[in-house]
Amino acid sequence: MTVVTLGVHIVDVLARPVEALPEGQDTHLLEQIRVTAAGAAAGTAVDLAALGVPVASVGAVGDDELGDLLLMIMKRRGVDVTGVVRRAGEQTAASILPIRLDGGRPSFHVPGANLGLSPADVDRGRVVGAAAVHLGGMDVTWGLHDPGFLALLDEARAAGAIVTMDPLSNMPDLLRAANVFLPHVDYLLPNEEQALAMSGATGVEEAAVALLRQGPKAVLVTMGEEGSLVATASGLTRVPALDVPVVDTTGCGDAYCAGFVAGLVDGGDVVEAARLGAAVAARVAGGLGSDAGLGEAAGLRASSGGEDPESSERL
């Protein structure tokens, strides 16, 4: 069965290493420039395909050259993009990311066609028939804050689908509005800043527990080099990040989500799936772009993240 990634689709143009923007008409020579499929739905879809998971993506892009490019990249990576609609006269969402020497990633961004995604764009049969539905960026796809779409998620869950959700922005008002989805998802995967904003808590453990009470089976808070915190009804578990040289942090959250979803559809428990998420994120952090290092990634699934289970710490 196919995993469906539903939500934000972005073209990323990345350059590294960038120490400063050139003044005037100056030119700085760089080591790399790449164009990748990104965004909380498209980036996760590409990573799932690299892991060998059948995946289809649902979203909206413009009827422009960037949209052509994004769909071409996704198809070449093995993603079914027939569920991505084209918006006449709109721009495909895009970001320009100058990557610093330490892997940091300031960005210039155009939201584009993502803002107009609506329930009418979503094929019910594709969602209800999925093994898992990954919601990417529901905090910025306001048209999906709709009772009919929430009912569709419930229908998919009743049919056996796993529903996961990963926010996109760091804007508190948008993130808090996305709480409407929590009773309708199984697993929430925010980063630390997002978890604090969504919960109103002052600490990550308090935030995870508060979000768990709103409906999901588990909340997984990613914390960069500090790993991730997994909150379930059984308690809290820390899953460490892998120690790797960081080139670029772009797409690490999407990679974690892809590994986590792959682990779940393979039958792993939530902590095993989180370890696989950490392993996939580590691969991506070692290169430029949201799909870096995943050329031979399918083998990661067999190793359940390649970590000793004892490395996870129950709190």
UniProtKB/TrEMBL annotation:
Keywords: Kinase, Transferase. GO terms for molecular function: kinase activity. One of its GO terms (cellular component) is cytosol. GO terms for biological process: phosphate-containing compound metabolic process. Residues 15-290 form the Carbohydrate kinase PfkB domain. The keyword Transferase applies. The keyword Transferase applies. Pfam families: PfkB. It comes from the Bacteria. This is Sugar kinase. It comes from Streptosporangium carneum.
